[in-house]
Design brief:
The complex is a heterodimer of chains A (383) and B (429). Chain A is an all-alpha fold and 383 residues long. In chain A, 72% of the residues lie in helices and 1% in strands. In chain A, helix 3 (36-61) packs across helix 14 (302-322). In chain A, 45% of the residues are buried. Chain B has a seven-stranded mixed sheet, sandwiched between helices. Chain B has a five-stranded parallel sheet with strand order 2-1-3-4-5, sandwiched between helices. In chain B, strands 11-12-13 form a three-stranded antiparallel sheet, with helices on one face. Chain B is elongated. Classes of the chains: A mainly alpha (383), B alpha/beta (429). At the A-B interface, helix 3, helix 5, helix 7 and helix 14 of A face strand 2, helix 5, helix 6 and helix 8 of B.
Amino acid sequence: MMNAFYSKWLGGKRGAIELAVLAAFIFIVMPLWLDIFRLNMVGKYLTYAFAAVGLVMVWGYGGILSLGQGIFFGIGGYCMAMFLKLEASDLASTARQTTPGIPDFMDWNQVTSLPLIWEPFHSLTFTLIAILVLPSVVAYVIGVAMFKRRVGGVYFSIITQAIAAILTILVVGQQGMTGGINGITDLKTLHGWNINTNSAKYILYYLNGALLIGAIVLCKFVLSSKLGRLLLAMRDKEDRVRFSGYDVANFKIFTFSLGAVISAIGGAMFTLQVGFMSPSIIGIVPSIEMVIFAAIGGRMSLVGAVYGTLLVNYGKTAFSESFPSLWLFLMGALFIGVVMVFPNGLAGLYDTYLKGRLEKVMAKLRERGPLRKLSPVKAGVQK
Amino acid sequence: MLSKKSRFSATDSCGRSGNGAAVPFRNQIALAVVGAFMFAAAGSAFAETPPTSKVNTTHLAVTDKEVIVGQLHSSTGTMAISETGSIEAERLAIEQINAAGGVLGRKIKIIEEDGASDWPTFAEKAKKLLEENHVAAIFGCWTSASRKAVLPVLERDNGLLYYPTFYEGLEQSKNVVYTGQEATQQVFAGLDWVAKTKHAKTFYLIGSDYIWPRTTMKLARKYIETVLHGKVVGEEYAALGSTAFGSTINKIRLKKPDVIYAAVVGGSNVSWFKQLKAAGITGKTNTLLTLSVTEDEAKGIGGENLLGFYSAMKYFQSLDTPRNKEFVKQFKAKFGADAPIGDVTQAAYEGPWLWKAAVEKAGSFDTDKVVKAEESGKITFDAPEGMVYLEPNHHLRTRLRVGEWRADGQADIVYTSDYIMPNPFPKGY
């Protein structure tokens, strides 16, 4: 039982070490190193990491480049924002409005009653379920429409990008319902719990980290299963898998939906930690940025995606703080540099330079102590 | 430059009040009072500055020599083109304040952050400025969306923001001073003017589809229908960034409104005016009053496409007063002769000066004390647009002007209103 858990969920010894290092980094190093302001910022970056992890599954293993991961990030974020906004729009704090009790932006847009679609978001349970179900339904529909017709490759990428654009236009256009370009702002409490206090920020940071690690573990489990190997096979020679009698489309739909749900969880955590949600986070540009995070981290590495996200966002913040007028060029240089020097991203860098040394150390440790031999690492699953 | 002038005038009036035998008695007293006041004002710059422990009890970035403020605009991204003027104007104001001795004897140092036209980034940078740099004030934001994103941060960390853009109103935060006009200030007087001079009865409203045009048009419609007893024959909103106005223009031709009342923004603005001209709707054939064209936009749209149309703003670069001419000269000397100065740029210039006035009235940099000074109703500034008065509701009492566009991208001012009280929460609208 333990062994199965170890090899299937954590990805064997190397996977376990990687996860342990990441967990230590998120849970111990960061909080000790950074003050609450910077930590909250890292928390925000880590929410993007959900989307990047989802992309490693969809793109790295599934071979489907989705340029619309922001769609699902947005769905999760907006669901959470709708719940929080309804809670912030109680009668007392909206007494000044023409119609008290509805969110302020609705009042500004001459909406006089709460739209039907908002009603269920009074319930936290419904909201949490919606965050998980809604993106998977959307991804399922997109997936069925695309993969069953064998739309793939660059066409799929373009269509996902178009959907991201459509969603942005829809959100901006239906401002009475969505807050338009301003988004849903001024969120305060979650079930009476003030999300803007320092203690809340710590708790949300840890919750976010735990969910992220959980998402990675889930992905590892999927990859270590038969499905994972099928995914790899599909990516490399799709026709062979199809001729072997597998319905390729279904696997793709599943992976795409899984990536979508993971992104949506990130979106919900984004809303909680940043305190608002706006269409600028769900459109084409952020969706492409998410692909960049995954590429920098190494598109075959779940853990690498997290580091990639952190590195890019740290670069953004640091460069823009030090060189407010030059920073975009520096970011561009970073992207070009990474792709030129280590095309497999940070994970590739690790594989080339560090892995060998680490394994030597491990071998020495093994000689010294009679470490119980655990089930072997499955080759090809963890690259 | 400014500093020298005020100091000269101080000694000047002191001198005159000293040998004032020839001056009538009442004027003598007045001069003495003015002289004493000026002397005190000039003196404070030389007297030792108040100790930091006294003017800063809330751990702001204030030392004996300097005070740090933040500047938070988009210098990259889609909004950069609009916000550059504000960045420059604020810098100019701060430079001039420093040359005049600073604020409470302290030189202002700027930490600039780039909001990158991205609302979460604005929130992040505002937080950084307040929590890491402990800035005494922030000058910045441009779009409503960026202000809305920053607002919770300001309120939580009790920071100060000076916000320069004309906007939709419906907001009044103790932590923000709005140096641009809120919607009622921009809408009513302009409509009055157009109804009176053009005998307008029918109006066609068109705006970009977001909160500012929506709110503005809501006010305009009500005012047209109830006060002017006119008729709104069309109300339309174009998606942000939309560039196709063909069907709107056809409808306008069909309805033949007396006035086209427009609040189209950004890239759409350029297409809107070019397509109007292509369709033969020009300043000669139609009356068009817009709320969203300043000299900055005029440069992009092209003066020939605007010729004869009207804008309702509180400031135009062409304003013919000595104070404005001096300002325009200083601005051009620093940022180039072809840098246009629009309404928002001038409003941004007011920010640092109003903050300085509030801090000096409060005798402290502490946010709560500065806010109290801001709300005292006694903060004024002799701005390029004329005297402005900071009202207790954090908005400015100013005038509205209507400008008629010339082919060179400048406007002739054809109407100046009386002072208009700011009213961010208009009743009955």
